[in-house]
Write a structure and sequence with these properties.
With 432 residues, the protein is of the alpha/beta class. It is built from 15 helices and 17 strands. A hairpin with a 3-residue loop joins strand 3 and strand 4. Helix 10 packs across helix 11 and helix 11 crosses helix 13. The longest helix has 27 residues. The two termini are 45 Å apart.
Length: 432
Amino acid sequence: MPAHSTGPVRRPRSAAPVDRAARQAGVRDQNLSLALRHVLDCAQPQSRADIATATGLSRATVSGLVDELIAADLLVELEPLAAVRAGRPAVPLAPARGTVAGIGMEINVDYLGVRALDLGGRVLSERVELGDFRDSDPVAVLDRLARIAGRVVANLGADGIRVAGTALALPGLVDRITGPLRVAPNLGWRDVDVIGILTAHPVLASLPPRLANEAKLAARAEADIRGHDGQRPSFVYISGEVGIGAAIVLDGEIFPGRHGWSGEIGHTVVDAFAAPEGRPQASGRAVWRQPEGISTLEDLAGQDALMRGAGLDPTEPLAILLRAALAGEPAALDSLHRGATALGVAVANVVSVVDVGLVVLGGTFGEVFPYVHKAVEQQLERCVIFSPWSPIEVSAAQAGEYPAMTGGALVALNAVVSDPAGWADAAALVDA
């Protein structure tokens, strides 16, 4: 047809089959992810028939998908079950162990850590180093973290385990759009190019981390442990450390906010008239300065505040406060009650806005749970308008120690779960 013609332009005949093939390949990739995710989300091993029933895919389709996932070392077959009726016994499937790893890293006020998990949730390698990182040099701390990560990656490589990716938990505002850590008041950091610093190290140059707030990644681990067998929980997760963070989980998904800054409950105002004790500021240019004349939740219920309220040195371990509370010392019990009351008021505001029925206390608050949960429950009952019809449950976190590292590893592994075909193809290229 002449170039100047205004008539209809016909697609070359060869384009239609290619387009259909692309769509078919895309559907198969999605179904691979669907099948893999179903096995990972179920607490009990699933058979091919179970997957077909749950997903609506035909048994023949599921059988082909499972064969691909086994060949990619993402699933394994277990011993067949005894047949209940005539026919072939069902062969249970489970996540492959020790074949692929996600790495979760964390920088907190008093420790650095790196944890590697496989698809079965098993810890493959882990290193935690204690320290005091308040008012610290970001480059020095990030360099130290990179060295720890390098040792973990080396351990995995020695065992023939491929790394899917990395994620890093930070105790501050992480911009999910542009990437930098905007501010971490308790570290004394502001506008730090975390990824740029970390990827200057060879081990992380090919594994650049995804960044997220510590509470959000801890909540990801909590949602995972509470969400098996198709359950998608909704809750508010409270992470108590020197600072206090939170995450909102709705139907199993973290609500990030526009920038990824949701959940900064520690900086919410609890008392606008009381004079705050004030937190130490970083030397030199202030990282962030709290307005005068207000008390935030961290001022009243952060770990330092709980220790000071009990007459204890805030630099000492929390275990000292726990021992004092266990011994029934009035100052310790009063401090925990005051902090829990402030926490309950702050959380009641969040619950009233987002309408969830569960509050999960993690970190410091998980450790002191027996001494704080009743006061939190009382404030929720008193302050939440819908509590007479739908009482709010308060629960201790179940995700174990260092949940943000676990959450980071899960985020890294999600790249494999979301695109198992792409992962298998990339792994084949590496082998070649």
